[in-house]
Design goal:
The chain contains 16 helices and four strands. With about 400 residues, it is mainly alpha-helical. The chain has a four-stranded mixed beta sheet, sandwiched between helices. β1, α3 and β2 form a beta-alpha-beta unit. It is elongated and about 100 Å long.
């Protein structure tokens, strides 16, 4: 009987155009669109910054060491033009107007200070809102400082190796897979959770509030079917819709990588292929299933209580923010899956997915996360049944 109700409700849901768009079409397109925009903007920005000619405002004498070395820097470090200024007021004003992008100030005694072999001060001005100029300034000044240090060694008949008692080498023991999991792994669970919620929302409203509006709920209740069977059949459709939305988001990611070839870096592709395996997908769905049931269990009582589609939507839509907001924890570095975070709903799914991507997931914490979400899913089902069993809630 549950299966019969499930088939009936599934057919009605698949006839609803709005549900199909939110559950299937948008999740399928979201990853290709996001990756296309990200890759396109990133490539365009990199090319623009590399080709950009920078105007450098300079305050100092013509024989100033920094000015001479700036003019000698090779062209492969970027095209530049050096403009002389008499005072810092006009230099800072032009910097604000973007007439120049970097300002360099050296005092009158700069060359003399250099000859006395004491540190000579250089002040570099930049506008932090102009992305990339600070990095460009650091590249120029680091190169000039390196040249000055080597010349000083020659003047003092010193060897660089004699003045370097310790040379430290840093070796990163984290694999590329772990790096992606820890720093970029937050986006995947965030999108899955968001679409899982949206995928549940429209079917939940349509199958409960929609039936009340259409006047078909009374007819359904007169059939020789137990109320919990009706609720179960409907909730399976809601949960399935949420899982389908998450699944089509995953398919969209696969299409972006394998069919559209948006990601061209071979090393990155190799890492992604090693992540998107059968084990990852099964464990991911093991986490998403109780979460989706929990979402459905939260929505159904609201949909049962609401008198109209608009009322149900106005209540459930803000819940999307409340439910998905914890998923943003995945974007913050330093927050790891432990006994405490594994006990926090939604947060545990996000952090477990990040560790799953990185290949560092602890099985004990995975079981705890699953148990917490399973308990909440069961609790949500009980609350839904209590609501659905009340005559005043299901009859207009």
């Amino acid at each position: 009987m549950i299966f019969t109700i499930f088939k009936k409700e599934l057919k009605d849901t698949l006839r609803e155009r709005r549900t199909l768009i939110m559950t299937l079409l948008i999740p399928l397109l979201i990853f290709p669109i996001i990756l296309n925009i990200f890759v396109g903007v990133s490539d365009s920005f990199s090319e623009k910054q590399a080709e950009k000619s920078i105007a450098i405002g300079f305050i100092g004498t013509d024989d100033n060491y920094v000015k001479i070395q700036l003019e000698k820097l090779p062209e492969n470090m970027g095209d530049k033009e050096i403009i002389r200024y008499k005072d810092t007021a006009s230099l800072l004003n032009d910097l604000k107007l973007d007439s120049i992008q970097i300002g360099v100030y050296t005092g009158k005694e700069f060359n003399e200070t250099m000859r006395q072999k004491t540190p000579a001060n250089v002040t570099v001005f930049f506008n932090a809102t102009d992305v990339g100029t600070q990095d460009r300034a650091k590249v120029y000044m680091t190169a000039i400082e390196g040249i000055a240090i080597r010349e000083r060694y020659v003047e003092m008949n010193l060897k660089e190796t004699e003045l370097t008692p310790i040379k430290t080498h840093y070796s990163n023991i984290a694999s590329s897979k772990e790096m992606i999991g820890k720093f970029a792994g937050g986006i995947l669970p965030y999108i899955f959770i968001a679409f899982g919620f949206i995928g549940c929302m429209y079917p939940a409203i349509d199958l409960f509030t929609g039936e009340k509006e259409r006047g078909t709920i009374e007819t359904l209740l007169t059939t020789p079917v137990l109320r919990w069977q009706i609720l179960t059949g409907k909730m399976i459709v809601v949960v399935l819709s949420g899982l389908l939305a998450a699944s089509f988001a995953l398919i969209g990611l696969f299409v972006s990588i394998e069919v559209l070839n948006i990601v061209e870096d071979k090393e990155l592709l190799s890492i992604i292929h090693s992540i998107l395996n059968l084990k990852f997908i099964l464990l991911l769905y093991g986490l998403l299933l109780p979460l989706t049931i929990f979402f459905a269990g939260v929505m159904v009582p609201v949909a049962v209580y609401a008198k109209s589609f608009k009322e149900a939507q106005s209540i459930i839509a803000p819940l999307n923010i409340i439910m998905v907001l914890p998923a943003m924890v995945g974007f913050f570095p330093g927050i790891e899956l432990n006994t405490i975070t594994a006990s926090i709903p939604v947060v545990n799914v996000v952090l477990a997915t990040k560790d799953l991507i990185a290949g560092t997931l602890d099985i004990g914490l995975l079981v705890l996360s699953f148990a917490v979400m399973l308990f909440l899913a069961i609790l949500a089902i009980v609350v839904s049944y209590k609501r659905f069993d009340q005559e005043t809630n299901i009859v207009m």
